[in-house]
# Entry
Amino acid sequence: MQYLSTRGQFANRSFSEAVITGLAEDGGLLLPRAVPRIDRATFEAWQKLSYSELAFEVMSRFIDDIPTNDLKELINKSYATFTDEQIVPLVHLGNLHILELFHGPTLAFKDIALQFLGNLFEYLLDRDDGHLNILGATSGDTGSAAIHGVKGRERIRIFILHPHKRISEVQERQMTTVADDNVYNIAVTGTFDDAQAAVKTIFSDVEFKKTHHLGSINSINWARILAQVVYYVYSCLHVAVHEKNRAVAFSVPTGNFGDIFAGYIAKKMLPEGSISKLVLATNSNDILTRFVNKGDYSLGEVVATSSPSMDIQAASNFERYLYYLMDKEPDLVREAMLKFSVDGKLYMHNYLAHIKRDFAASAVTEDEVQETITRYFQDHRYVLDPHTAVGVRAAEQHRDQGVPMVCLATAHPAKFPTTVAQAVGQPPKLPAVLAELEGKPSRCEVMDCSVDVLTAYIESHALKGS
Ligand SMILES: *Cc1c(COP(=O)(O)O)cnc(C)c1O
# Structure
């Protein structure tokens, strides 16, 4: 399978190249040349497979430059760190199905992709005798999942910036208590946006990036999307059996458009009608909801909510969808993205009918999040995290009679104890991995959010080639 850029200038990258490159040199995102179609007989035969076996069947259709046994081993290793035997268990609550994606090492769904990406990076670097210095900024979940994905790897060092004292204590401890030498936690003064802007500036220095083999772990990496396609396929197989129904709908709490884009790829891949609807759920940072409902993709101010991992305006994976929406015309995509970078808005009314065939959308308020968490606890004794609650609320608004609805549960409620305690009257039970963090020694450098200070630090601690 070859990969091409949404902006048209690179058209024949291998999977390995796509993974190591992240962003294409023309500023576009990488996509497979074609999405493979699975026929119904093959799809139904997958019912018997374990999660890891299914992951191999799905991923191997997009990867042709890693030998079968190596890929199987990479996948098995990646999901062996999950604490639930099913990897992604489905819980049936009333007329909704909750797909629990939070049984990995950092208790958020990002582990599903980043455990795999960590193993994949190590494999490719061993094969090609390379090394990598990963740099990223986090508002909480991504940083810890990335650190847990690459800690202890000899050919990788990871530098993660977080805004000093502006992430939750749990999130901070999940990163700073990792003792491996290749992990560098940097708390910068300022906000997440300041940290993110510094990282972007450092990456834009092409010379510095090349000299230090800088790599990124953010959600534009195709391997992350691919790993997420698997659990959509898994849910279709298992819910369809449970409900004796072929079509399944999904509701997805969304920030960067990554997770729901994986659902869009799954829909293209599976037999016609397997996925009937994709509900895009946002919090009050509603740019994507406005896009789906009105064709209005215009930046607003980022507001802080109880679902911080979705406090995003410009969605980094949006361009991938735009590519399909614009009939795979890279010139149109490039023009639209350049216009967006200048004006901060795109009006796409002409495409509205097409967009509405692909997605439904709702924005969920803070009061609705609280009410939903409270109600599910009262009715089912089930505790939703605030991100999952956004998706559940949207699912209730878009459910079709007779079609099963799967809500993606993206984080364990114990990661967001304050909101959960407010809604259910008691703090969530701490799972063992979080309880153990209490009292562990932690390491973190506190620094000014200055590009000079940061580059000097990276320069002196980066892994150098042999
Ligand atoms: C990252 C994240 C999301 C949003 O995922 P996207 O891929 O950005 O759409 C939702 N919930 C949680 C808990 C997250 O960490």
Notes: Residues 133 and 419 are 35 Å apart (CA to CA). The domain at 90-107+223-424 is CATH 3.40.50.1100 (Rossmann fold). The radius of gyration is 21 Å. The mean pLDDT is 94.
